[in-house]
Structure prediction request, 625 residues.
Amino acid sequence: MSEQKPGFIRRLLQSVWHGFRFIRNFVLNFVFAVLFIGFIAVIFSEEETVQVEPSTALVLNLKGDLVEEKRWVDPVEKAISESTGSEEEQPEVLVRDLVKVIDEATKDERIKVMVLTLSDLGSGSLDKLQTVGKALERFKAAGKKIFATGAYYSQNQYFLASYADSINLNPMGAVILEGYGSYPMYYKAALEKLQISTHVFKVGTYKSAVEPFTRNDMSPEAKEANSAWLQELWQNYKQQVAERRGFAPDNFDETFARLYERINAANGDMTQYALDAKLVDSIKTREEFRQDIIALVGEDKEHHTFNQVHYEDYASLVIPPFPVNNPMTDKVGLVIARGAIVDGNVKAGMIGGESTAKLLRNARYDEKIKAVVLRIDSGGGSAFASEQIAQEIRLLKAAGKPVIASMGAVAASGGYWIAAPADQIFAAPTTITGSIGIFALFHTAENAMSTLGLNVDGVGTTELAGFSSGLPLFKGLSGDAEKLLQRSIENGYDEFITHVSTTRNIDKAQVDKIGQGRVWTGQKALELGLVDKLGTLEDAVAAAAEKASLKNFDVQVIEQELTEQEKLLAQLFGGAKAFGLLPEQSVSQTPVQKLMKQLNQELSVLNQFNDPNGLYSVCFACQVQ
Prediction:
């Protein structure tokens, strides 16, 4: 028996080793095969260049959410998921790329008309939609027509469609404009069922970020504040659309009774209702619409449709895969701060205290960059990371380089913290900003522990021992510990309002009055002195150039550099998709999927909380629906 055991163990280890080698070789061969296919695709795709006929329609078939900065996605993971038919979770369309495409099409004599097919367009704040809309207006000003067509128009999709010369609706389609709302999910009862204790420390009457964990509904104060800015957004939406469509703002139906009355008058026909309400200009099938555009630009006989080039194909012609900067000109640097603010280094799509500060530091040491625009689209996050970024802005100014903050959809809480030290702050009328407040949130499971029959016990040299390693999670917080944390929060709030008072030259008592966590629109923030001017990103760039006395300059986007490996993979797999090896995906979502997406987004914010001091300045309610 003693002689057989070593032989058995040896054979067992050999089997494990062979199994390991098989798995390793399989994975390596699979990765190599994918890379090889991508490489071949790139080679052959050079011969498959996009063709634009002398008379062509540019089809804006946008897929995904409109964003200021695309979040980083691993090119290998993206390619594999697409090749297996998996849908990209949250596809995105970069606003500046979209504007570039429209402006190039405006100058392109081959592009005669534009067709908007927006069924896969996702979210997009009013300021982003207006930025795209201004480019559409430049297209029309060049004497070119825009036609929109679709089976159903969501609110964002309809806003862009309203820029068209004519809006078509499929005979089985509908247009329902719901208005804006803020409906966070509340967890208090669920946490109680799980016997999880919630400990909240905050300053600000209107600092409602913690309410989902302490209440089962929205507080009267939060409803009052949220209703005010939501109504401003909705009035702005209605006014703009009404002007373009040639009807009064009261043409929008805001009650079920009014909507029923008008649809009933159209014999229950949703398309006839849309036509009667002047929301659309025509009701035509896809083939009828197709024939209309064929009459304008000619027919693509091979594909039995009108001559056309799609958005991504045309973008591949006019937008270089990687930025090319002219080394001879002075620059206005553009730093994008989009997403939750967290401590440390993060990829694009989030704001890192270290990584975003590094971008600003790069601008400070770049001799060709004479001024910086910080474009903000963030509801806040870590107070510590926000201050790290603010310190870099002060250093930029001390180096003699003007800094202009440009607010996008949201620049609230920590988003306002990083805007405050700029020389000037620009906001859109519909920007959601303010929310000057701070909080800390702890969950402890001492009650759940006792129910499960578990306990944590021991000794320490001080009462503080074990605090940083998570002991309160199991033991709870003492009254003295809660007093200490609340005092820390009060100090953090005082630092916030002092920061705003000093940088904005507003009396500290006044900052406290308009602070308290309350949210304001850009229009109201201008009246309160929280911002300096209403304007676009282009206005902010012009102001930065003026402050730096620049006459001839280029705008240089300062972003995290890809490694050579990442660039190669991006080219390989980008080529694979262009060559048609990877399938296109639809991005439409069911109501249940949208609800799950909201839940996932709200919970993911908690996972991102990593402030070393546990202090946060966040506006959860700033995401509208």
In short: The longest strand covers residues 166-175. The chain has two domains: 56-177+253-318, 330-622. The CA atoms of residues 114 and 146 lie 5 Å apart. Confidence is low (pLDDT under 50) at residues 575-588.
